Amino acid sequence: VAALDRFDRALVLLPDDAMLQYRVATLLDLQLRPVEALMRYQRFLQQLEIQRIDAVGRANAQLAEAIARAQQRIIVLERQTR
After folding, report:
1. CA atoms of 41 and 10, how far apart (whole Å)
2. Which in 24, 51, 71, 81 has the greatest CB count within 10 A?
3. Residue 46 and residue 37: Cα distance in Å, rounded?
4. In sequence order, which residues have a C-beta less than 8 Å from that of residue 9 and are 6 or more positions away?
5. Which portions of the chain are predicted below pLDDT 50?
6. Long-range contacts: 26-33, Cβ < 8 Å, 24+?
7. Going along the chain, which residue ranges are E strands?
8. b/e per residue 23-44 (b: at least 16 CB within 10 A)
9. How far apart, in whole angstroms, are the C-alpha atoms of residue 46 and residue 15?
10. Predicted local distance difference test score (pLDDT) of residue 1
């Protein structure tokens, strides 16, 4: 019960921390509170998916930037070699 209280307090400070959601879900599961545990497990998975989408988006943005810079350099270098 005390651990659950501490995790709930931590979630106030870090509401997007997926692992905290997982730990809370596990504790609720152990306390035989299936409805609450189910909700927390689902939230954990949802937050992981959001983090994955964010990571892919950032990686794609960096790749797009690198492609644009490479294309610009090709143009400049081709002009210099003429």
Report:
1. 17
2. 24
3. 14
4. none
5. none
6. 27/3, 28/4, 31/1, 31/4
7. none
8. bbbbbbeeeeeeeebeebbebb
9. 13
10. 84
| C-alpha span between 7 and 21 (Å, rounded) | 8
Output the six-digit token pair for 2. Answer: 């005390």
- Distance, in Å, from the CA atom of 65 to the CA atom of 61, rounded to the nearest integer, reads 6
DSSP at 56 = H
Instruction: For residue 4, give both structure tokens.
Output: 């659950």
- Burial environment of residue 10 by CB neighbours within 10 A (0 to 12, 13 to 18, 19 or more): middle
Residue 33 in tokens = 């509170």
Q: How far apart are CA 18 and CA 50, in angstroms?
A: 10
Given this model, what pLDDT does residue 76 score?
96
